[in-house]
Amino acid sequence: MMTPSEIQRKLDKVLLKVTKPGRYVGGEMNITIKDWTQIKTKVALVFPDIYDIGISNVGLKILYDQVNMRPDALAERAYAPWRDMEEQMRATGIPLYSLETYHQLAEFDLIGFSIPYETLYTNTLNVLDLAGIPIHSNDRDETHPIIIAGGHSTMNPEPMHAFIDAFVIGEGEEVIHDIINVIQAARHDPSSQYSRQAVLRNLAQVPGVYVPCFYDVTYLDDGTVENTFPIIPEAPKLVTKRMVAKLPPPPISFIVPNIEAVHNRVSIEIMRGCTRGCRFCHAGMINRPVRERSVEEVVKAVEAAIDSTGFEELALLSLSSSDYSHILELVTAVGDRFGDKHLAISLPSLRIETVSVDLMDKLRDRRGTGFTLAPEAATERMRRIINKFIPDEQLLETAREIYSRGWTTIKLYFMIGHPSETLEDVQAIADLCKRVLAEGRKVIGFKAKVHAGVSTFVPKPQTPFQWVACDTIEQITLKQNLLKRILHDKNIKLSWTPPEDTMLEAWLSRGDRRISNVIYDAWKKGAKFDAWQEERRYPTWLSAFEDNQMDPSFYTHRPRRTDEIFPWDHITAAVRKKFLFDDFRQSLEGQIRVDCRQHCFACGILPTFNDLRRANPGEYWKCPVIKSPARNVDISLPVVGD
Predict the structure, then answer these.
(1) Residue 47 is part of which domain span?
(2) 381-429, pLDDT tens digit by residue?
(3) How far is CA 52 from CA 49, 78, 94, 96, 457, in A?
């Protein structure tokens, strides 16, 4: 092991040779440093992308706060070095280290990766290699840290099963303490010798933790999964996501980055979960149910966070900020409390049907980064298919109100590649953008602008569209070229997702265990920073598939059988597969499901909530059909099948 002082001495010689050395020195305002020698359990939290992006990750901030509140544990951070720094580290023998105390990652008891999206997979392998830790979990022994991973991408953990010791399925605030307790008990038990295998067996019994080495998979002749099953009695047949009954207080002592980061702002989560039921939306399905923080709690957190950081921008986070029950009251309270601080307020996610005139008036003098709306589709037929029905006139009326209140640019999010989409549906995106711009010109003239962000749909696990196929590169290119040809107005900016990025995301998000070999081979061939367009190596991935004699289209362009067993079926977000399939079937008929706040469709969350509520009787978990904990509402629902 290289000591922290040795690492620092070597860094003195290399930091002047790399861009943005501030990424690698630590010492930021509001970091937590504990006495390494006095702490039982050391946790390294890793975001496998560069510092500029990872420092803003909300999930890592929450875990950093949770772990460091414990007197018997510490949390320190590490990020993926950029290519120039990696080159220097490998040349000089510097292992990947934590920014707080410069201890190399291999010295920690536990390493936790936050992996919100699949294009971080090769970076995760690269981080392990830079840390001097075996890439494959079955090559590690008692001298190595336990490697865990969480984040939205891990709702299908199978593509990374060979590299991660244990996955956290769901929310991390409580389960991180359970994991630390298991590791701490094993490492400090005087009656027995530390055993990595014993730790993993104990972790497999923690609700919401999936230990892949204790499961096996069989396949049918057509290559699809026949069964995924546990091979030890301690491992459950079905791993249900971990949920917190009540959102804990949000972090308020944010680390202030050394350099310009992607988000230099206070970020407070005001609500978790969504009741809208958009059929393409992975986050909306896996983050159920809705839980809200009170206005008072949010305002107090904002005040404390601004005082501790000096940030001048505030982001009120949720999947649908305008659906927060008290959004007007909250924005008013924040405006009244911080009126003299010129605080810019950002609501990153606003729904067209809930963007009221009152809300726009409240935001008018406190606007931050602009006004964004997400119609997702531009025809009534497509909106019914995806369960996001918004009449055009409602969108145009909202646009008029936005422009009239001083905004000059409206960003519209659309998605191409939805099931049953035609070129006419794509043409409608361009037509709608032009109509929105025309409304703006009526109000503010040629200052009006539209930014159309057009991503490409990937049918994600745990959603009603997990049965459908992804568009081919040829189809995606045809649709994008159509939009590029039509949207040539200088006041309309068009951005899109490269088709190759869509293919990679689809392979990795819908893959089974066999994909792990492809990931490993692609990394060995040089793939990393796959989320960066200038770094993407699409031919490398195709070569890795070929080396493993696998057809990538098997994971992207093949519609799933209605009775198919998915690679992720032994993992559940507590939303039943039967509910998802019924919703998929309704999409084929263009049927709309109303907001869950209006009607409960027995998706499966409530029975799971009942179990959690019985286990935690002192907590109250907000659900759309529960108006108040004092009303004594019977929320028991029949089980309608798996």
Answers:
(1) 4-231
(2) 999 999 998 899 999 999 999 999 888 999 999 999 999 999 999 999 9
(3) 8, 12, 21, 17, 27
